Amino acid sequence: MADEALFQFLHNELIQYVYKSAEQGEMENGRCITRLENMGFRVGQGLIERFTKDTARFKDELDVMKFICKDFWTSVFKKQIDNLRTNHQGIYVLQDNKFRLLAQMSGGKQYLEHAPKYLAFSCGLVRGGLSNLGVKSIVTAEVSTMPACKFQIMIQKM
Amino acid sequence: MADEALFQFLHNELIQYVYKSAEQGEMENGRCITRLENMGFRVGQGLIERFTKDTARFKDELDVMKFICKDFWTSVFKKQIDNLRTNHQGIYVLQDNKFRLLAQMSGGKQYLEHAPKYLAFSCGLVRGGLSNLGVKSIVTAEVSTMPACKFQIMIQKM
User: Whole-angstrom distance between the N-terminal and C-terminal Cα of chain B?
Assistant: First the structure.
């Protein structure tokens, strides 16, 4: 519980800090998102190395995705992904019905516009994790009703 | 282990980000430290509310300090403070012989000059925690040999 709260509070501070420092330099919203995403990327890279230290080699891409949905998600967000879908052509959709970093926010449409900044770091986290497993990707997130959230992963073929 | 790594990686990113954004705006080192300290302060405020939710009322200042050294420290830094000393006039010295956020750094004097930026957040954390328990203080840290570290708390009488 303690560490969980620590991460959440720190994550909130981070967002606030990035947006505050942007105000002074008149940086647009998009660049804040990018910065948060980049931080997530590097944290994801570090984390996945720890998490996979003792796991067996992955069979294929889908196997990697399952690891992200189960082990990785549980470690970071304290629950598994609720639904994983794929078109078998390099697109994966991960649905989390109660995403941890949105769970503290009010439901309804009132704060929907603020959702992207609370998701950017996590998108980076997934992208960084996948990247260190040799899977290059683009990760985006969308929210229709809080605190449910969909992460879309597009694999970049090399 | 997972959450622990998450906090450490995120903490590192935070420091890097604060110092990087300072470079662009030509902010001096002192202000970076202050910003990190302030973030720690707010996180500490939040955390202490969670941690003390079900604890009994504290008897006195020393009782509060013991809570910080044991419960708070264990929750955040995964070990207790090794030594608590006080002059009974409002100064407390908390010694941690293997401080978690310095443990990954090389010992010796090589990186000693970088220690302050890795301690600022934690100083704020303690100050914020104490503040929400009604104890106003100034918290500073010093390192003589890594990864040992001393936190000095000066109580501000109101």
Answer: 41
Q: What secondary structure, in 3-state letters, does A21-81 show?
A: HHHHHCCCHHHHHHHHHHHHHHHHHHHHHHHCCCCCCCCCHHHHHHHHHHHHHHHHHCCCC
- Sheet holding B149-155: strands in order across? B83-86, B91-96, B149-155, B137-142
A144 touching chain B per CB within 8 A = no
Residue B3 has pLDDT above 70, yes or no: no
**What's the rounded Cα separation, in Å, for the pair B128 and B136?**
9
Residue type, B41: F
Global confidence as pTM: 0.89
Q: What is the pLDDT of residues A42-56, one digit of tens each?
A: 999 999 999 998 888
CB contact, 8 Å: B54 with chain A? no
Cα B78 to chain centroid, rounded: 13
Phi-psi region of B144 (alpha: psi -120 to 50; beta: other; left: phi over 0): alpha
Nearest-by-CA chain B residue for A72: B2
Which residue among B4, B42, B51 sits closest to A13, beta carbon to beta carbon?
A: B42
**A70 reaches B (C-beta below 8 A):** no
Q: Is A51 on the interface with B (CB under 8 A)?
A: yes
